[in-house]
Write a structure and sequence with these properties.
This protein is mostly helical. It has one domain. It contains 5 helices and no strands.
Length: 145
């Protein structure tokens, strides 16, 4: 599932020339897919993937745009004759995006309408859900295994 689209990333730049051959729209689309896979890999530790809640998608869209735009700016900076120019974007977009992802995994940034893995039918046991009802005892001298 794609959290952002090509135009979302391009809108982060003052101007972006994809006709120069340095970067293509296909490459940007590929970068979006890679960033979204990374997001799913991190958020999937806590939430059921795909995340489809409207509010959660807005948060993940911002993270996806940040990861792709920062990566794209670095490529343009390396391959461009001018140290500035079209690649001027807000600094540290990827750093903020990664920090937001860590906050999601650490559950300090909530995706309010995403389904937690524990609500999605993850492995459970009666003894872990009702620890006061299950008495754990081991008998000595008897093979219990």
């Amino acid at each position: 599932m794609s959290y952002c689209v090509y135009t979302d990333v391009v809108n982060e730049f003052k101007s972006l020339d994809i006709t120069s051959g340095i970067i293509t729209s296909a490459k940007i689309t590929e970068m979006i897919a890679q960033a979204d896979a990374y997001i799913d890999g991190r958020a999937g530790l806590i939430f059921q993937i795909p995340i489809v809640g409207t509010t959660s998608l807005l948060i993940l869209k911002q993270i996806s745009i940040g990861l792709v735009a920062d990566r794209l700016a670095n490529i343009l900076r390396l391959k461009s004759a001018s140290p500035d120019g079209v690649q001027l974007i807000q600094k540290d977009l990827a750093k903020q995006a990664r920090a937001d992802l860590e906050m999601i995994v650490n559950q300090t940034l909530n995706l309010p309408d995403a389904v937690l893995l524990s609500q999605a039918g993850a492995v459970r046991s009666f003894s872990s859900e009702h620890p006061t009802l299950v008495r754990r005892t081991f008998r000595q001298g008897i093979n219990q295994w």
